[in-house]
UniProtKB/TrEMBL annotation:
Excises uracil residues from the DNA which can arise as a result of misincorporation of dUMP residues by DNA polymerase or due to deamination of cytosine. The keyword Mitochondrion does not apply. The active site is at 69 (proton acceptor). It catalyses: Hydrolyzes single-stranded DNA or mismatched double-stranded DNA and polynucleotides, releasing free uracil. The gene is ung. This is Uracil-DNA glycosylase. GO terms for cellular component: cytoplasm.
Amino acid sequence: MAATDIKIGESWKAPLAAEFTSPYMAELKSFLLEQKQEGRRIFPKGAEYFRALDLTPLDEVRVVILGQDPYHGEGQAHGLCFSVQPGVRTPPSLVNIYKEMQSDLGIAPARHGFLEHWARQGVLLLNSVLTVEMGRAASHQGRGWERFTDAVIRAVNEQEKPVVFILWGSYAQKKAAFVDKSRHLVLRSPHPSPLSAHNGFFGTRPFSKANEFLEKHGRTPIDWQLPATVE
């Protein structure tokens, strides 16, 4: 698996070239092929494994939001963390994200959960693990994706322009613990899941804080308001 064969933003290819040609990536590719040959359904579809990197080029990243695994329900995952495809019910964590955004910025919750509008503006919506078997949460953890996405975060961390890292929950905070806080803004809070959102997620104002930081450093703020409808 070579970076030149993968649909990702051109600026990612050189920094990630060694990952795509490494033994662990070859093993991961073999694992995924075996899973498919056994008739297991893998989400998202193959063309969308690297969708986050395709929509958000490395040199345009302004905000990073870290997730853990793709959604494992029918028709949900499409390669962006917390986002679901048009027509799919908004998941509970994203409902809480919308609630916080309304409290923070006065933006009414969207009637959909499709977040490509953010990704196209430089919000890297990155899951730690990029695939999952249908109906089996966390089924592809420990297969190599974590190493790959660590390399993605390192590549962003090494960028000269300052970036905002929004780390919801202990998993994301541990994964990105090495980020250089002297150059980048790291916003940490509990996860927006219904299980933890009331333990300190609400009231953290990550969206306005991210934009304040970007503007302070001469970068364009994010338009967090999602389109009213999506196709």
